[in-house]
Amino acid sequence: MRNQVKWLLCFTLIFASLQSLFVLPAAASEESEEDPSTTAVAAASPLRPFPQHTAYVSGVIKPNHVNQTQMDNEVKRLYDEWKGRYLKKNPYVSNQYFVHYNLNQESYDKDPTVVTTSEANGYGMLITAIMAGYDSNAQTYFDGLYRFYKAHPSEINAQLMAWQQKDNGSAIVSNEDAGVNGATDGDMDIAYGLLLADKQWGSSGSINYKSAAVQIINAIMASEVNQSAWHLKLGDWASDSSSKWGKGTRPSDYMLNHLRAFRAATGDGRWDTVLNQTYSIIQQLYTGYAGSTGLLPDFATKESSGYKPAVGEYLETDKDGYYYYNASRTPWRIATDYILTGDSRAKAQLTQLNNWIKGKTGSDPAKIKAGYRLNGNQINSYYDLTFATPFAVSAMIDNSNQAWLNALWSNTTSKSTNSNTYFSNSIRLLSLITVSGNWWRP
Questions:
Q1: What's the CATH code, domain 2-435?
Q2: Rounded to an integer, what distance in angstroms lies between the CA atom of residue 293 and that of residue 322?
Q3: Is 224 marked active-site?
Q4: pLDDT tens-digit readout, 249-290
Q5: Torsion sign, CA atoms 147, 427, 353, 248
Q6: Active site includes 185?
């Protein structure tokens, strides 16, 4: 039953973006049923309003075929479209919001009552904290997402969020069939979002963002970090002592700058150990299994010889050891730390990745395909926005990628929000916030 639950827990996320190939345009958005500006308590003035135009490390590039105002406006447009399509008020609890990840069954969940996940909630908290200043209601949305997270605790560690929620007709509840335990990526983004909120609005209001962040960060350390191997686990359900699940890790969870922020917020030196181990795992996977491509797998496992790509169907599908829908996020997640700090430990892997994808596609983003084996052989023959946009973040690390970055910006901003999915649209928005120079660390 445990294996079945875990398989169900993640399976739909892997294929969420496939629907972008044939999803019908949605009807006009039904954002919140009432204007939050008329119902919320007075919001704090944002201290770091969008756009921020963050000073990234020397040598990092941005698109240069469009100006800064044009980039900011593209992000604003994509945010408005994302918010209008996905950010929903809980119909049963007026001060809660959630990010709907299953509109028109975009997530491929066969249960149409399933509405959201901790991953979606984390994305929403990151996005609304960053977009404060442009959106005068951002704090209302953020606080509503926070309350939604707190209303759906993991059954294992109540400071973490249960993975999946459904609408039973009278309430939105955690899905007892698959989603009552925590998933590491969603919990990490929720924690980082709270740290952003503390710097954006301060913690003297109705929610002490800093205190809430420290609580969930400590819970992640206690329940989602392997305490002997010091790698990020798949969730709080993965026991350290399990010969199968305790050794598993997901490279798309390698949010290196999150780990630095967790260390700074808590003073817990173990986060330095996790950061160093995460960089070590990236290097092992790159040099041992993807030296010609720089691609990382959806899942990896710790073996006696070190970390290696997971075998097929380790957790989800026969593509668990390939660069697929989980790993599509790694160019964005890993490159962000270099962009903000200049830590070069993954630069060789990112450089190889950039050179490989440019060569594979002839520097044409339209030729990026949905999934690759680690040797570079494509899995599917179609384009997917989920895979394209994160390459724009990794392209930022070096000016030799300028033309490629420009092409990626033009390609990814041209894709219709209504013709794509929650997964691809959320990844695009978060990636392009970074590419436009508007991501910042708390």
A1: 1.50.10.10
A2: 12
A3: no
A4: 999 999 999 999 999 999 999 999 999 999 999 999 999 999
A5: positive
A6: yes
